[in-house]
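User: quick one, sequence for these tokens?
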């Protein structure tokens, strides 16, 4: 079944675009490399292989959530559904600067989005600029429904390297089934305005990646979206599978223990505990974007190096030890992660 999906994917995706995508990222990593970053990358890779719980290396990718506020209501996004357990808010610039200052010697890339719409934040351009000034590649994912006067120019001048645009339909009736309250024509106008501006200035960046999440209701528009990606001249197009719906894990009665143990076997290892870190708008540090229930620390009250090897982080890494281990004595966000075991239809039904 998995293989069939891959084959379907290969059949529809223009291959040269996929190759170009990987080459572009590799080239960017080479441009951003320094001896210290390379040394860290090698160290943390070895420590991942050894499944070290206490590590000397640091993450080389950070996902930083500028805000968890959004104007749309996508039905399987916790923010869109109104069930995001975090309070709503925007990251102060001071928090962002602190993260970059502490991690700039290791970071190749930041993913500047979380569970919200980054383009709603005025400070987003200062954040991108600060990352670029510190030799870090920046990627943003956006619904691109709403840009203000001057935003196209600011975006093209910002130093952003990749703009992922969520476009899961090319007609309004299909698009709005998932992107509830979104306006597909506005998204297309904004894409075209950015491409025009880049051409006028002879710029390559930001590259635009159209991201189409394939669901039953929009599958028939995949060929049209590929055609649109060609005619608009965007650099990348990807098809994405539906991600897991947010489900609180490890129930108080331990009911998800069995599922978690099974997952551990299936997943083998989750490198995000070594390679990446997720930092919410309020400074909360988590292993990834799917782990709402449980914080590993807060960057506003502690330095990252104290959090990275604390009891909760090391207990999370311990779950992935080669020898079977008991459930952690206290709840950690990774225990019971349903990433591979529980997938649901974004519009409601289990699948
Ligand atoms: C939560 S969104 C935040 C960024 C922005 N608001 C957006 O939608 O692009 C982060 C990423 O998750 C993707 N996403 C949203 N719903 C999804 C789903 N059901 N399955 C997989 N990815 C999804 C978005 O397209 C986006 O690339
Ligand atoms: S546009 Fe992005 S943040 Fe907003 S509801 Fe949809 S997926 Fe969530």
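Assistant:
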């Amino acid at each position: 079944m998995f293989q069939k999906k891959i084959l379907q994917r290969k059949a529809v995706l223009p291959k040269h675009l996929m190759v170009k995508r990987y080459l572009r990222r590799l080239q960017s990593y080479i441009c951003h490399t320094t001896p210290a970053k390379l040394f860290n990358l090698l160290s943390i890779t070895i420590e991942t292989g050894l499944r070290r719980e206490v590590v000397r290396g640091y993450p080389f990718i950070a996902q930083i959530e500028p805000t968890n506020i959004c104007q749309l209501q996508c039905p399987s996004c916790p923010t869109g559904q109104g069930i995001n357990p975090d309070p709503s808010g925007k990251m102060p610039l001071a928090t962002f600067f602190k993260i970059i200052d502490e991690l700039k010697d290791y970071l190749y890339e930041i993913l500047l989005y979380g569970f919200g719409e980054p383009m709603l934040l005025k400070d987003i351009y200062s954040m991108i600029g600060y990352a670029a000034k510190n030799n870090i590649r920046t990627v943003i994912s956006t619904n691109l429904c709403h840009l203000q006067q001057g935003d196209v120019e600011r975006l093209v001048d910002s130093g952003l390297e990749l703009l992922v645009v969520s476009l899961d339909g090319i007609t309004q009736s299909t698009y709005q089934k998932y992107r509830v309250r979104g306006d597909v024509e506005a998204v297309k106008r904004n894409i075209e305005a950015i491409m025009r501006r880049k051409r006028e200035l002879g710029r390559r960046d930001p590259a635009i990646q159209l991201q189409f999440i394939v669901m039953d209701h929009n599958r028939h528009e995949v060929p049209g979206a590929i055609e649109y990606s060609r005619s608009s001249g965007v650099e990348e197009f990807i098809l994405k599978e539906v991600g897991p719906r947010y489900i609180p894990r490890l129930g108080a009665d331990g009911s998800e223990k069995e599922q978690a143990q099974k997952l551990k076997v299936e997943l083998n290892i989750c490198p995000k505990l070594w390679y990446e870190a997720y930092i919410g708008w309020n400074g909360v540090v988590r292993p990834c974007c799917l782990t709402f229930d449980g914080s590993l620390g807060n960057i506003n009250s502690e330095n990252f190096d104290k959090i990275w090897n604390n009891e909760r982080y090391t207990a999370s890494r311990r779950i992935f030890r080669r020898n079977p281990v008991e459930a952690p004595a206290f709840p950690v966000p990774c225990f019971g992660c349903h990433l591979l075991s529980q997938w649901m239809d974004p519009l409601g039904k289990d699948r």
